[in-house]
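Re: weekly structure request thread

Next one in the queue (131 aa):
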Amino acid sequence: MRVDSGRAVPPAHATTAPDSLSASAPRFLVEIIAWVAAPWALAAHSIWLAILADVLLIGLPTVFGMPGAKKQKNPVSIPAVPAIALELLQPLAACVAAFAAWPTAIAWVVAVASVAACVLQLRRWHWMLTR
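Done, posted below.
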């Protein structure tokens, strides 16, 4: 590992993604928001849709993932592009559901948090695409 501008940079052949706490914590926060907001927005239409939303938002990333992209191992390995698309599902669901279920001011906070979490993932996604 080399040091660049005071921070450790993993070598290009690293087997795990450069996923610092400062980048993974906002991602996890947005995931939790999606897990709450999506069922909240769908419950008025159908309780089954609300349950299905959480099953998909929690279950898909748990089952499918790119090897080395997260700390835990996923049962089914997928390439980088579908893995990134799957990860983008969380902030998208958080934003859409927040605007559907909550006051506009809170929804904008969720949108800003989602964009920030995605920006913080760019380095990790670059690693995933170049691996």
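The first helix runs from residue 21 to 43. Residues 22-130 form one domain.
Next request, please.
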